[in-house]
Amino acid sequence: QVQLVESGGGLVQPGGSLRLSCAASGSIVSINAMGWYRQAPGTQREFVALITSSTNTVYADSVKGRFTISRDNDKNTVYLQMNSLKHEDTAVYYCNADIRSSSAPRTYNYWGQGTQVTVSS
């Protein structure tokens, strides 16, 4: 019953910015780490950024210094602020989270459906 829904994707020119959001809903007891992954056409899904429950962050080298991950625990939402976007950032961006729900015996990992980000001039 837990769901992750991404939003904020779209078309942007190189050097531009986008802010992605991912809201978790359902019978949530707690959310541990939350993160973002992306998959470009013809490639494997790759890690982008992660934020722990204590707000420690980890970034892929390819986005370090340009992207910022954050979370709002009151809203069960994780964000990805993407600045200085490049053509190679074009991909479907997926939200991921480790969530403990009231209907499950332990924490499980969940994925969102993805949101398209296209960087093009």
Can you offer a commentary on this structure?
- This protein has 121 residues and is mostly beta strands.
- The termini are far apart.
- The relative contact order is 0.33.
- The protein has no helices and eleven strands.
- Strand 4 and strand 5 form a beta hairpin.
- Helices cover 0% and strands 57% of the residues.
- The model has no long low-confidence stretch (mean pLDDT 97).
- It has strands at 3-7, 10-12, 18-25, 28-39, 46-51, 57-59, 67-72, 77-82, 91-101, 108-111, 115-119.
Quickly describe the structure.
The protein is an all-beta fold and 121 residues long.
- The level of helicity is under 10%
Q: Which strand-content bin applies to the residues?
A: over 45%
**CA-CA gap between termini:** 40 Å
Q: Which class of secondary structure composition applies to the elements?
A: mainly beta
Please state the overall shape, judged from the principal axes of the Cα atoms: elongated
- SSE pattern, N- to C-terminal: EEEEEEEEEEE
- What ranges have pLDDT less than 50 throughout 5 or more consecutive residues? none
Number of helices: 0
Strands, total number: 11
**Biggest pleated sheet:** 7 strands, mixed
Average pLDDT score: 97
Q: How big is the Rg?
A: 14 Å
